[in-house]
Amino acid sequence: MLTLYVKTGCPYCAKVLTAGEELGIDFDIRNVSDDAISDELVARGGKRQMPYLVDTEKNVEMYESEDIVAYLHQRFAV
């Protein structure tokens, strides 16, 4: 399962979401506008930075939109 922590209006988050759409990926979207989700992100990754990807199947967690997009293309491109 892929979980993506995002913030509404974040251009970096939009970049990752667009890449996901192009690759046909369904994310479990977690929006940090909810304080509980924001606290969950900080507890998980150590900082309140978006986007943040969690790939439980591969045990991968990462920040940085460019890194996330590259990872998605590496993992899901046909």
Any idea what the CATH architecture is?
A: 3-Layer(aba) Sandwich
Whole-number total of structural domains? 1
Which percent range fits the helix content? Answer: 40-55%
How is the CATH topology named? Glutaredoxin
Question: What can you see in these coordinates?
Answer:
The protein is an alpha+beta fold. The chain has one domain: 3-Layer(aba) Sandwich (Glutaredoxin), CATH 3.40.30.10. It is built from three helices and four strands. The chain has helices at residues 11-23, 35-45, 65-76; strands at residues 2-6, 28-31, 52-55, 60-63. It has a four-stranded mixed beta sheet, with helices on both faces. A hairpin with a 4-residue loop joins strand 3 and strand 4. The protein is globular, with a radius of gyration of 12 Å. The two termini are 19 Å apart.
Describe how the helices and strands are arranged.
Blueprint: E1 2-6, H1 11-23, E2 28-31, H2 35-45, E3 52-55, E4 60-63, H3 65-76
Parallel strand pairs: 1-2
Antiparallel strand pairs: 1-3, 3-4
List keywords for this structure.
about 80 residues, Glutaredoxin
Gist of the model:
The protein is 46% helix and 22% strand. The protein has 78 residues and is α+β, with helices and mostly antiparallel strands.
